[in-house]
Amino acid sequence: MVEQGTQGHRRSGEVLLPVVLAAVAVAVVLLAVVARPSVASPEPTRPPAAAPPVAQPTRVLLVGDSLTHGYRGDWTWRYRLWQLLRAERRTTYDLVGNRDDVADPVLDLTGHHDYADPDFDTDHAASGGMYLTRMRYDVPELAAATAPDVVVLLIGINDLRNGVTPGDLAAAARTFVGEVRSAAPDVDVVLAQLPHVHLPLVADYNARLDVLAAELATPASPVVVARSAGGFTAADFWDRLHPGAAGEVRIARAVHGALAELGRVTEPLPPLVLPPAGPAQAPAGLRAEHGPQGLVVGWERPAGATGYVVAHRPVGTGTWQEVRLNLPYVRASGLAPTDVVLAGADPRLAHEVVVRAARGGHVAGAGASAAVVVPALVP
Q1: Same-domain status, 291 and 367
Q2: Is residue 52 part of a domain?
Q3: Same domain, yes or no, for 295 and 254?
Q4: What contacts 66, CB < 8 A, 6 or more positions away?
Q5: What is the pLDDT of residues 266-298, one digit of tens each?
Q6: pTM for the full model?
Q7: CB atoms within 10 A of CB 107
Q8: CA–CA separation, 150 and 259 (whole Å)
Q9: pLDDT value of position 354
Q10: Among residues 230, 261, 292, which one ends one of the domains?
Q11: How far is Cα 288 from Cα 350, in angstroms, rounded to an integer?
């Protein structure tokens, strides 16, 4: 009986032992899980943020004649406008066109690039001597090639001076706008007044521009007028036709005002400061010596000069003698002017000689002059 009881007890323990061991194993696993430091679930992978769209510059096409084309040594009103556009903080600009040159005011040749300051966007679509009624460009092709957001038209004085009536000129402006829109239907248009307020027929044409702009404007393609005749006088032109430095500033500010009306610029204009008249470059290589008939003076022609004022006096005296020289004689050759003789200079005295370049009636100031002292001849 005892043996049977012992065997029954052993079997009962054999059954319980695996259960106990399993329970212990479960407890160990639970303790390990509890004791393990918590690890945060990884954030779901997100695609990289898209880069903000790059704002495209506003493309501005300037169309005109020599007023917009400009001459060697000029800043041009295109440069003055560019300086104003650079002040904009929210928009960039791209002047577009089919050329980037200036012309020579004496030789009447194009293809030059010696601006007074070439550090600007020099592209344009102007051509000296061009008529609005006889454009040298295929306007739809020009608009298609340059894809302007804004086109500025300043042209017409050649037409008015050669038999075209203000009414016919306004009709040509209407045709121009239609041709531009055929390639750029949403283009903004600026019709600039002619600044030649001292010449006949100009006031009539300028008045017609306001009527024309109102008739042509659409919600998709607004048309405004640049008040480029405002403040102009004959003194702002170096030859009654072409603007000097002050005239360049006046035109640029007027076009900026039209761009503001279109919402294309937002910064206010700076205070008006008119630059000095006359060429910016002084004559180079000035040389002078006493000759048998007087002082012999020569120099190299600076870019854009059409003439010079040559002054001389004995050193230490206060009276200058001035000679005005114009340059039609270099039109054929393109060479620097030949030496000039200043008669009446006493070779026994040392002389001061000052040469200032001129553009038409605008003579450079002292800052753009060249000077030399000629010693006296020893007997």
Answers
A1: yes
A2: no
A3: no
A4: 103, 126, 127, 128, 129, 241, 242
A5: 999 999 999 999 998 899 999 999 998 899 999
A6: 0.83
A7: 15
A8: 9
A9: 95
A10: 261
A11: 11
122: its two tokens: 């020099």
> Across-strand partners of 165?
none
Which residues of the chain are under the pLDDT cut of 70? 1-54, 328-338, 379
Do residues 99 and 247 both lie within one domain?
yes
Q: Which CATH number covers residue 317?
A: 2.60.40.10
Distance CA 76, CA 249 (A): 9
For residue 224, give both structure tokens: 């405004």
Contacts of 239 (CB under 8 A, 6+ apart): 360, 361
345 to 297, 349, 353: CA distances (angstroms)? 12, 8, 11
Q: Which domain holds residue 105?
A: 58-261
Distance of alpha carbon 156 from alpha carbon 166, whole angstroms:
9
Q: Are residues 290 and 256 in the same domain?
A: no
Quick one: CA dihedral 117, 123, 128, 131, positive or negative?
negative
Q: Which residues contact 299 (CB under 8 A, 6 or more apart)?
A: 283, 284, 285, 286, 287, 308, 336, 337, 355, 370
**φ and ψ at residue 367, rounded to 5 degrees:** -70, -15
Q: Render pLDDT for 170-190 as a digit per residue (tens, 0 to 9).
A: 999 999 999 999 999 999 999
Q: String of b and e for 206-236 (b: at least 16 CB within 10 Å)?
A: bebbeebbeebeeeebbbbbbbbbebbeeeb
